[in-house]
Amino acid sequence: VLEPTLLLLDEPLGALDLKLREHMKIELKQLQAAFGTTFVYITHDQSEALVLSDHVAVMNAGKFEQVGTPQALYYEPQTPFVAGFVGANNRIAGRATEVNSGVVTVTSAQGLVMPARAMGSVSRDDAVEAFVRPEVARLARDAAALRDAGLPAFAAQVTSLLFDGANSAVLLHEAQSHTEFRVALPQTGEFADLRVGETVAFGFDPQRAVCFAAGDTAHAA
Question: Which of 51, 121, 150, 159 is 20 to 30 A from 195 in CA distance terms?
């Protein structure tokens, strides 16, 4: 009883305030490492799951969608549900108008055309879902800076500034399609004077965006 081989923890930090919860996440991780006891940790808090775990199981409708390391779930989601559920993401629904060397050209009903890496089997004219994380997108005052870096560039207008310290972001409306994108603000201070209504550009590496055939569950691991 005093030295269990497995310990079940069901929402142990749910009643704590934010500061104490952040501290206890570190304490629990250090305790687990010190004692070597396997923790089965049940939580609805994604930060707890990602910070504390060696392996995470994501459930959807009573079934496991994906089991893997926190890094695998975040960077290599195997289904559209996991991509949209774990962490923040910009989701774009559309059709695959071109598939070339594992990169899908996604065209939305609103007219947005963007590239993304194919996950699983994606064929031309498939209905697809693409996901771009806010921190993957790069913001610029001038689209030429993005093109010079080899990135696709999209003109956009700032619609809202979301200040949250290191997690600050900006909401943009892409100029042609009016699609809303959330883009993380860099911590360099470069965009400290950004204002609502300003015209900017954003882009991203297509290999860091992911695209699935709509409703794909067969790619789950």
Answer: 150
Q: Distance between CA 21 and CA 17 in Å, rounded? A: 6
Is 220 inside any structural domain?
no
Separation of first and last alpha carbons in the chain: 35
Q: What is the mean pLDDT of residues 85-89?
A: 93
Domain containing residue 199: CATH number: 2.40.50
DSSP state, 77? -
The pLDDT tens digits of the residues spanning 9-38 come to: 999 888 889 899 999 999 999 988 888 889
Report the 10 Å Cβ neighbour count for 208.
Answer: 14
Residue 217 has pLDDT above 70, yes or no: no
What is the SS3 assignment for 148-209?
HCCCCCEEEEEEEEECCHHHCEEEEEECCCCCEEEEECCCCCCCCCCCCCCEEEEECCHHHC
- Is 158 a member of any domain? yes
pLDDT digits (tens, 9 = 90+) for 101-140: 999 999 999 999 999 999 999 999 999 999 999 999 999 9
| Cα distance between residue 196 and residue 189, in whole Å | 17
